[in-house]
Amino acid sequence: MAKPKLDQEFLKENSIEKLVNSFASSAELYSVVLDINGKPLINPVGPAPYLGEFHEMVFNPEFTKLYEEIVNCIADSKQAMYSEIDDGNPDSRFAAAPIFVNGRFYAAWIIYAHTKNQNQKLFKAFDHMANVANVLSDIISKLFIGSAIYDEEEEMKSELDFEKNGREIMSKILKIVSEGDKSNVLEVYENVGTLLDVDYIVYYQVDHNQAGRMKLIDYWARFGKSPEAEASFTWDHDHYDLDLQEKIREEGLIVDKNNMTNKMRVEVFQGNVKAIMVFPVRIAGEYEGRMIFIENSRERIWKKNEIAFAKEVTDMISRDLTIERRIQRSRRGTRILQEIFDELPVLLFVRDIENGKVIYTNPVLKGKMGYDMTGENSFMMIPNVKEEFEGMDNKTHDIVHHGKEYYKRYVDKLGGIYDVVEYFTRWRDGEKVAVLIMTPEE
Q1: β-strand partners of 45
Q2: Four-residue CA torsion sign, 149, 151, 153, 155
Q3: Region for residue 28 given its phi and psi (left: phi exceeds 0; alpha: psi -120 to 50; beta: otherwise)
Q4: What is the C-alpha separation between 170 and 193, in angstroms, rounded?
Q5: How far apart are CA 107 and CA 355, in angstroms?
Q6: Of 102, 311, 372, 439, which has the fewest Cβ atoms less than 10 A away?
Q7: What's the pLDDT score for residue 184?
């Protein structure tokens, strides 16, 4: 059976065209029904004397601009309108009534009066026209309920809503990744689970102390966390088919109504899962775990946008974990550096390149100054050498290479001229810093 389509043929077959034209004929007025883009769904009709002029007006590009305004007006108000029209005829008037299909604006019914006598008839017919338009909306909607075009329209609307909500969620995740603020992680899990309409989202990490085992790191459950929820999780170990293991590590696994087998349901999912998406979590490119999106309640087929969104969420989490690991390594490196700096018999401090704030002072410099300058703005003591020499010939100061600079400086707080070596590196949380070592001029 052919899918119904809201076009001229549909309106003709269901006698909608006849009803609209009969109304216009009985009122001796001109009539046309246009879709939201101005395409005729019912062709212009009316009394012979000015039918040609009416036809030309409807298809005139100038009318197209007017029609856009009409559409916006009646779509927003959801009410019929009556107005003058600037077509060179002082007696011209028109009325426009919206036609809705299942609550969505689809078309406008235009009735036009060219003469003063027709204008009076239009004024009297206006309320009846509005009522007829409402009835037409109900009739067409009922004809379309359950039809393919209605389903397609609803699916398109659903996909657009999904895409919009997905973008908003990804923006939240990106903010977490870029700023490192984990305060909204639970809210994001809730957003992702609700949008995908799943029962569980589970994150497992590889257990490097037990071969083939996974560690449960975190999960979200539609009805809240509980021992019962955790007991239903699978995929905490890798004793399944080797091909399946490899598939998960390389690209992930998508199982739903289309490809779920009884054997898989029983042996792999222990009878609990009706649909599942599993994606690999990689940290610095290495497989370190898996994100699992589980549907236990109903049979379903994953949509392309759902699969793409779940994978994008997993990839973003992988990036966040990669950044976290780098920061952890940086912090371990920083602790080692501080231990070394604490033992060096030189005057040394570390400052933020951007604002000059001192973030570390070694014991020798503290003893020399008589206090700990950590937290102070060091630019007052030793200016930012890069800004100071910016635009000057490189010969005016001795730059050995991009990661290190040598120069002399009178340091007021130390009461003398010092040879300064400034190293540029990263500190605890990845911030750019300069390590300054000061030696008294010989």
Answers
A1: 31
A2: negative
A3: left
A4: 13
A5: 61
A6: 439
A7: 67
| Average pLDDT, integer, range 25-49 | 90
Residue 204's beta-bridge partner residues?
216, 290
d(CA 190, CA 298): 19
Element housing 406 (H / E):
strand 404-411
Q: Are the CB atoms for 304 and 289 separated by under 8 Å?
A: no
Give the Cα-Cα-Cα angle 343, 427, 422 (nearest 5 degrees).
65
- How far apart are the C-alpha atoms of 433 and 378, rounded to whole Å? 12
The pTM (predicted TM-score) of the whole model is: 0.48
Amino acid present at 204: Y
What does the pLDDT look like over 64-81, one tens digit per residue?
888 888 888 888 888 999
DSSP 8-state secondary structure symbol assigned to residue 2: P
Adjacent-strand bridge partners of 143 = none
Q: Give percent of the chain above pLDDT 70.
A: 88
Whole-number pLDDT of residue 146: 56
* Tokens matching residue 148: 């393919």
Partners of 295 in beta bridges: 275
409, pLDDT greater than 60: yes
**Half-sphere exposure of residue 341, counting CA atoms within 13 Å on the CB side?**
21
Specify the residue for token string 């009394």: 47
AA letter at 383: P
Element (H, E) at 203: strand 200-206
3-state class (DSSP) for residue 391: coil
DSSP annotation of 234 reads -
Round to whole Å and give the CA distance between 77 and 71.
10
Distance, in Å, from the CA atom of 134 to the CA atom of 322, rounded to the nearest integer, reads: 59
Could you tell me the sign of the dihedral formed by the alpha carbons of 336, 338, 342, 345, in that order? positive
- Per-residue pLDDT for 21 more than 70? yes
Instruction: Give me 387's structure tokens.
Output: 């800004």
